[in-house]
Amino acid sequence: MNDKELFICSDRSALNMSYQKIGEERGKPKKIGTVKGMELMGCLVSAPLGVYPFVPILPLTTIKMDKGTGVVTSVPSDAPDDYAALQDLIKKPLFREKFGIKLELLQSYPLIPVIEIPGLGRQAAADLCEEAKVVSQNDRAKLEIIKEKCYKEGFAKGHMIIGDYVGMKVVEAKPLIKQVMIARGIAHAYSEPDTVVISRSGNECVVALADQWYEEYGEPKWQSEVRNHVTSSNFDTYNPQTLQMFLTTIDWLKEWCW
């Protein structure tokens, strides 16, 4: 891995990356060093395509530390977990002091609306958390309900209100932003299991790039034909929610391997 491709991530994630041609040698990630998350608290970093030139690293106790980078871009206006964690830091001095975070630092980064969702407005996560009286990031039951609503409605119905894609639907802007980030060398297309996967032989599985056949469900003509069919009078789901699930799936379903 060269000096332009250093990642803060778990050992498991590094192994997945090396099997996906991210790094110098397949299956052999090069470990540069070890750093504790606590040592990064309050440090300023550059967020890809972010509005602020630099943003602080803040704690999120609900993140999976053995998956991915362990560091995610925070969008508290639309991500309930992020908003709840930010409010914990703002409202709880002892919690803030534990991580060495100053209140002045938090106050210098007001929420930035990113998408607008019909019926939910421009800061859906923040508004719904306040409405449901979420008390902390550990209020999991409420946050899961809010997250499902924000993410489903935001992806299917939301449109961008910031950046180069103002007015574009989120479902259309997302793949374009991904392409831009990869083209600029500030992101990698990368996959890994959501949880630990153990094979029948007892080995832990990784996601690897291999020769496979893919069914191109994301082909525009196919998507258009299916979308027209499920919205026609010849197709009845008997439930508006079921129809919306069909439409959402048609939008996100892309290549599927065999």
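(the above was protein one; protein two follows)
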Amino acid sequence: MVRHGVLLFAVALLTAETASAQQLGAKVMGGLGIDAGTQGPPGLYIIDRFIEFTVVNVRGRDGAVVPVPGLDAFARANALGVAYTFVPRGGPLITVAGSIPWARVSLESDEPLLSVDRFGLADIFVQPIRAGWRHPRYDAVTSYSFFAPTGKFEPRGGAGVGRGYWTHQLSAGGALYLDTTRARRASALVSYETNTRKRDIDITRGNMLQIQGGAGTTIYKVVVVGVAGYALWQVSDDRGADLPPAVANVRTRAYGLGPEIDFVIPRLRLRGEFRYEWDFGVRARPQGRVFAGGLTYRAWSPGASP
């Protein structure tokens, strides 16, 4: 029964929301990388982001593996979004952004016997404001975002493509460049998120603190190679009368690291990014591998030809 409760809690954590130069949120670990703390130039951007998390095992509250015979689980999501960056007179760069994601969550196990496969609209992302400062040797950014519970949520089933609650996220970060060409850099974005009570069930997820970022160098002027990483800590307990006893007073934690490669096609005004990261130091959540990336099309920029 304890194993069943832990596994259902882990399934709930599989719910995939999306993330990522112009970004679409910072909720999923591995969704951001080398340019996490950078600020893009003014313009209108069309963005597509995808992420896949493949579960290797489930870790308990002490970090030990929870045996789950026949475990086969993954979460995938793809989001289409838009971001607009402009410069008000005398002010910093301002970005507003939003995205609509579609997700699939799948889990099978032999003991306990479970088979879950959900697909559909996930929780939408809205960033009402992101302020940034862009200089030859450094960038700085800060933002407020929220994730709205638009995805299908199953309060008692333990799985779904939506989480059933609002998440509010405050972020701040920056990037450092070794020279004025901005070819070699390191960046990071720190985010703090708070969650409201889940819909139709008395459970409230604890607050989360996370860091995402990386370091890389530009080669041949159009390719960036480097390393991306992340860290996640739950900083307050889950609470509520419907919280399963098996996961009471449990706080999740995870770290990740892996390679990243990005590319730019200036003539097409297109940028791509791809990263593959491995979890380690995981506690009270699924442990696995993250494959993430996407494309950004700069549809318009100030002074561009019609």
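Reviewer note on protein two: The two ends are 64 Å apart (CA to CA).
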